């Protein structure tokens, strides 16, 4: 009899406070929490949210004063001369060549600029904040997709575990029958062929058991990958009752609460802001500029030279830019933005249809699963009764070994069918919870 596994999870880091401690069982809730903290998709989604804050900072910086400083040092070994009319200097009829400037010149200046009105900047700041909200919603969607993936992988491991328990039950019963037959054969009361047939049945069950064990190992590895766990960690599981809840069918769902819809609506909002940014190209812009500098010049190196001449200077100004005509490029960009918005709205309506379909299918699957589970439970009970009666008749010589083995196989098939229907119910339950937008409840249940 395969014992139910008990989960042992070694803490993967000192700062992962929600990780499981040693000797605790791995419930679905704990597996999901582990995945949300360790799986690459969840980590990257959280980093996108963090990065959106930096994007806002970048856009906001454009509305703050921009200050810069510059310095230069120039040496003019040959100064260009300019021609002057000699009459200006009392020498009519002559042209006098005069060099203006000094061989050495140093300049240091501080400049400041400030946007006073820029519609593109204001729109960009709104878009940056909406982008942050977009990444927050996208992070929620990533978490929900990860929860769904982990839940499906988790129950797939249980499918192998339940199959293994059914095979072990059948193997135990057949082994008991084999032991009884061996005593009868040794006493000369039973033919050896019946014992051989029982040995063949046991060997077949052992082969099936190994196949299921191999499949179970693969599914456990898939679960480890799904939650971001080291593949070499040992995982064990608690007992699972697989209770069904018919009340799920009575609950309605609203697709407007789905994260996918909120994400699509936020995408449309971003596209609207992109359109506003294009339209902002029609608006004038106004900015302030100012500078304060210091100029030094002389016949020798002007720095640390008391013989050099120094002169401060400053300027203040306003810059106004008014767009007049750019050949219709702005209008074309606005039209392109409109097309992107229309396409996004079409995608939103299509997503709503798909989510409504998925919700209706999930309800139908739950309904069918409930009926199948109920039928399979009755079938298991009947198969158990048949097996008990056949075993009793066989003990009294009223049934053949073939009938007994057939009854054991029928009971094993009925049990496997029940297990499969219970797991199918669980998968359908996850889809219905997803349709209601409550996948996060699997973390807090």
Automatic annotation (TrEMBL):
Pfam families: OEP (PF02321). Residues 1-22 form the signal peptide. Its main location: membrane. One of its GO terms (cellular component) is cell outer membrane. The keyword Transmembrane applies. Keywords: Cell outer membrane, Membrane, Signal, Transmembrane, Transmembrane beta strand, Transport. It is found in: Cell outer membrane. The keyword Iron does not apply. One of its GO terms (molecular function) is porin activity. Belongs to the outer membrane factor (OMF) (TC 1.B.17) family. This is Outer membrane protein TolC. It comes from Sphingobacterium lactis.
